[in-house]
Design goal:
Layout: H1 2-37
Length: 42
């Protein structure tokens, strides 16, 4: 049981980092497109 908890504790930050990376990448892409078109992102 301890090994399952240890694996979970090690994998959870990787999953969170992956989701955060996808969100930030999408935001940066939209921000660059808006900036190139001369419009506000909001």
């Amino acid at each position: 049981m301890e090994i399952i908890i240890a694996i979970y504790m090690l994998v959870w930050p990787v999953i969170v980092a992956g989701v955060l990376f996808v969100l930030v990448r999408g935001f940066v892409k939209d921000w660059r497109e808006a900036r190139a078109e001369g419009r506000s992102i909001i």
